[in-house]
Design brief:
about 100 residues; alpha+beta; Deoxyribonuclease I, Chain A; two-stranded antiparallel ribbon; Endo/exonu/phosph_ase_sf; Endonuclease/exonuclease/phosphatase domain-containing protein
């Protein structure tokens, strides 16, 4: 089993997750736990408290979702809590909460 802890900078580029996917494929791990502060939300409707209109601000790039699908990764918290809105970070400037930490 491989464990990988990540901290990504805010508004990480799509290229970062494409490179990460390549690295994870090279690990060839039978079991992988990827966790960390992704500094973005996978699904804004469920992972952000946004009060003012819909926004894609802080949404993880499509390459993150592609990586999850291609490597058969599961956001275990969201899997076990499909309808619960719960957050890990508060942004004072945006006056909103977000779930930017994933396992």
């Amino acid at each position: 089993m491989e464990d990988l802890l990540l901290y990504t900078k805010k508004y990480q580029s799509a290229e970062f997750f494409e490179k990460l996917e390549h690295i994870l494929l090279e690990l060839d791990a039978q079991k992988l736990i990827l966790l960390g502060d992704m500094n973005g939300v996978p699904a804004p409707d469920m992972d952000r408290s946004e009060k003012k209109g819909k926004s894609n601000r802080g949404k993880l790039p499509k390459s993150f979702n592609d990586m999850e699908e291609n490597l058969d990764l599961t956001d275990i918290w969201r899997h076990k809590n499909p309808t619960i809105k719960q957050f890990t970070h508060y942004s004072e400037p945006h006056q909103s909460w977000g779930r930017i930490d994933q396992i």
